[in-house]
Amino acid sequence: MDLTDRELLNLIQSKFPLAIRPYQELGQELGITEEDVLSRLAELKRKNVLRQISAIFDTRRLGYKTMLVAMAYDPDKLHRGALQINRHPGVSHNYAREGSYYNLWYTLAVPPDHDLEATAERMAHDTGAITFRMMPTIRFFKIGVNFDMVNQKGSSYNYSPDGYDSDAAKGWNQAVPVTEEDKAAIRELQEDLALVPEPFQEMAQRLGKTEDELFALAQDLQERRLMRRYSAVLHHRRSGFRANAMIVWNVPEERAEEVGMTMAQHNAVTHCYERPTFPDWPYTHFTMVHATTPDGCEEIEREISEATGITDRLLLYSTREYKKTRVRYFVDDYERYRLSEEATREAKSVAQA
Questions:
Q1: Is residue 317 part of a domain?
Q2: Catalytic residues
Q3: What are the residue ranges in the chain where pLDDT is below 70?
Q4: What is the pTM of this model?
């Protein structure tokens, strides 16, 4: 990648222009042609540096239930189990990690009328997991993945949830009404944007709207905090950020909020959550960090520890990325999993009887 590629990637990560000719606008900002922008993005996608360009939605406000799940597998069953878990359409992130008893970590989302816990239980059973832990979010401090491609460092400055004020942040896990028109727009906006001069044209036509009406609807979704932003997602390893770690911290209950906010202020932290503890898992705060090298992750770990005074922690490096994508909402892919949920509930009731 040359400097122009890196500047282009910085632009589209923050706020992609919702405009009739968005690539032309990007070119004007960079001093290059629309054709050059399209050519560069096509090459970055071919090299798998650029994953996709699409809307990012707020899972919980759309009524979906979501959770982090930690699985423990025998080493010889881990790979097959991870691939089977990938098949579920609500699995957006799935990583093998080293550094703890739990060696596979994935995020799972299901529609409002599905049973989240039954789905996770069934997946553990079907894949031969030794054990598993469901780790819902208690408190949400930060989400804002952003990489400064020019300076090759983390630049995640958005706060919970993505810069909303404190009053809005209180309702981060509360579903809001979604109309059929909203759902239709979400189904379109969540798909990867085509690399053509007027990429929103066909999208608007399928919705029976003009492009300006589509942009107005997208703006309305943002104002209602259903859509966080419209932007690009990069493949962090292909982008030069080859080290990825989940650092978990044992934080005293009376310091939970203060420490979480301090952790969120570090620009290399992309996600920061408080989660429940278990007899075999005392860690309350989860911070995701990315760096160009493992030493970089460990430097971030030391900086957070010094800033908070928390020393009891684990650094869990990802050893393999099995899946990283955006959740797809209001699609039929989930329906074939409903029987699995029902089978799990039935098996549990029989066992209890």
A1: yes
A2: 93
A3: 144-173, 236-241, 338-353
A4: 0.83
